[in-house]
Amino acid sequence: MLERLAGILRRRREEEEEYEPERLPIRRCMPDYHMGLYEEEIIEREEAGWTNDPVDPPSKTTRDIIHDNVFTYFNLIFAILGLLLIMVGAFRDLTFLPVIILNTMIGIIQEIRAKNVLDKMTMLHAPKATVVRNGRKRVIAVEDLVIDDIVIFKAGNQICADAIVEHGEVQVNESLLTGEADEITKKKGDILMSGSFIVSGECHARLEKVGADSYISRLTLEAKAMKDGEQSEMIRSLDKLVKCVGIAIIPIGLILFIQSFFLNEESFRSSVTAMVAAVIGMVPEGLYLLASVALAVSAVRLAKRKVLLHDMKSIETLARVNVLCVDKTGTITENTMKVQGFRATRHYDKETMPPLKGIIGDFAQSMSKDNITMEAVQTYFQKRTGRRAQKITSFSSEFKYSSATFEDGSYVLGAPEFVLREDYPEYEEEIREEAAKGYRVLVFGSCDETPDGRELKGKVTPLAYIMLANPIRKEAPKTFAYFEEQGVEVKVISGDNPLTVSEVAKKAGITGAENYVDAATLTTEEEIRQAVLKYTVFGRVTPAQKRQFVKALKGAGRTVAMTGDGVNDVLALKDADCSIAMASGSDAAAQASQLVLLESDFSCMPSVVLEGRRVVNNIQRSASLFLVKNIFSFLLSIFSAVFMITYPLEPSQVSLISMFTIGVPAFFLALEPNKNIIKGHFLTNVFLKALPAALTDVLAVGALVVFGATFSVSPTDISTAATMLLAIVGFMILYRISQPMNRIRVAVLAGCICALLFCSTVLNQLFAITDMSAECVMLFVVFSIATEPVLRYLTVLVGSAKSFYDKVKGKIFIGKKAGEEA
């Protein structure tokens, strides 16, 4: 998707004229970056429409929800079928319409409830911007910004509108726009593109283009079609099923009507009702609704646990994850850092040099607090000598150092391997000694040449080692133990020293934490591919490598979740199957992720995974109930067409069976707890569970119709007997799917049986249930007894066929893999 967006960006630069929406004219007085806009200037711009309103609403409107639930393809089909039944006077067979209306209402109500809850949370945690107005700093929502506002951007901030740097210097990553991860330095007069994010530094920038005028808004409009097309496997499978059924019901319905009316010479009314019954049986009217409602309810449940969903599909994806990539800081440890101490190296001469604490204090004072490391260093080293830096280079996650140049020389602070470079082996033992204690070690040293931008030249003489540490989260060991029990492999990916990260991972109880590697030694894609499968802990990882690790794991067939909180995590978060951000981290990471942990508490992840499993497993279980009816109706329609018989069921009878063996129990089961690990593909699992029961229904009803015709049993009696047979098989499969039974499931099963018996006796006229003749009763008893063994043996047969297929598929895969390796 990034590549496609980059292509759009390039095409727009080369081919399109600048788009300028119609705006009211305003007087563009350029504000001073110290003062910003004054109140009257802000009001003037707001009245003229020069605001930063998003081009896309954050969620559907209530009107959109009602429209999408009412005007569906299947509702159109049901409306046409209803009109046909009214035309022939078959009002009794309209019993399916209240169910359809109720389903639609439930869908609308649940979706509006979910929208209201999520909108409130989104509003509370919407992106904010620090703006200078009337000479004072204020934090406001990004959509409240106006053109010419002076905004202060720091490391971690995402650029919310096209802007021009007025003061300061920042390093910017425009990868979300161009696909290129290089950091670009922006100084006074340079343009900041909306959608990019600040890697380091701080600046005051004046907003030049806002709202629909900004670059990211145009890309958003282009990308919307792509974004809408991205669906989880479950929703994608349901879409495929609905599309196939939607196409199939039209020719099958026409064939059944033509055969019944023209060939079997049935009455127009009988032909229409038979055709309608067959079509209703094939339509999974409640299945898509069930999935939508279950996902909406899950989103509300997660919101109550302070987890904000940007993307509904992530519920299912996270439930299927088998590899979890985590960063050390913010995930295993608290998102705070403290200096544990420092020690001078042999190169520091306290007799001839200023106090070491003062030198480091001057250095730290020159830097902005754009990351927790520098904030910790500034807090610890508060002693100053009074010197001022003439030139600084802010910390970069790519180069892993920062520098400051004073009158008496240049100093650098950063990761030992990146600062000392070829001299690192000389000091490695001393550094490893501290790293083995779980400390993150930084080297502070003097440089004999002034650093030129990002290029560190000359020799660095280490003056001190600074030891920092993040406290391990109390819940971390318990959380990682849960993931191990669930078969989820944890990979720790960090920019720190691999030995330090390994020690921290051990304390957090991560299995295999002793298996670590320095990512700086991984130079080829093949080395990375092998390393991600072999090692658990990765140190000295660059932002580009994080992305490569995620791609390599996905290439190995793993479903990958990625947690992150920094700007250097954004690309990997975008590429992961499921992305999780900490709210305490950067704006860019939070906006790029599908899930945001609003309290930055990683210990809530098990409950999020369980919620995903509950939804997918329960929908999968309930979907098989719907599919039994659909497969049965499809096969019975084919049977009727081939053997030139009229479809034996009436619409009201199909509605009765659907209500109490499928619809009602499916909704109760979909909201039940379910902790089972998800295996296999959604549609395959559902189809294989439904197939034995559907075949049992077809064999039982088909045989009943044939024997009924042989013994001259009335078609009305056969319809009633067929309805009762379908009910028996329906409750049998419901009992199997509900295993293991509990009080709720027993109550649902018993309640549905009682309700069906009540409707069949007291409301028998409404649902076309009649008294059966003695011959029909005998046939019904025989076939009722036969259904249980038929269902049992068909279940075994389908299971054996699947096992055989899996073995053959496995042998083919092993042979292909061996051939590739050879």
From TrEMBL:
Superkingdom as given in the UniProt entry = Bacteria
PROSITE patterns per the UniProt record, alphabetical: ATPASE_E1_E2
Q: Name one Pfam family in it.
A: Hydrolase
What residues form the membrane-spanning segments?
Answer: 70-90, 96-114, 241-262, 274-303, 623-647, 653-671, 691-712, 718-735, 747-767, 779-801
Question: Which keywords accompany this UniProt record?
Answer: Membrane, Translocase, Transmembrane, Transmembrane helix
Where in or outside the cell it occurs: the entry states:
Membrane
> Which Gene3D superfamilies does its entry note?
Calcium-transporting ATPase, cytoplasmic domain N, Calcium-transporting ATPase, cytoplasmic transduction domain A, Calcium-transporting ATPase, transmembrane domain, HAD superfamily/HAD-like
The answer, when asked if tRNA-binding is one of the entry's keywords, is: no
Domain P-type ATPase A, by residue range, is 124-220
Q: Which CDD domains match?
A: P-type_ATPase
Bilayer topology annotation: Multi-pass membrane protein
User: What GO molecular functions are on record for this protein?
Assistant: ATP binding; ATP hydrolysis activity
- Fetch the InterPro entries from UniProt: ATPase_P-typ_cyto_dom_N, ATPase_P-typ_P_site, ATPase_P-typ_TM_dom_sf, ATPase_P-typ_transduc_dom_A_sf, ATPase_P-type_domA, HAD-like_sf, HAD_sf, P_typ_ATPase
One Gene Ontology term, aspect cellular component: membrane
Per its UniProt record, what PANTHER family does this chain match? CALCIUM-TRANSPORTING ATPASE (PTHR42861)
Report the protein name in the record: ATPase P
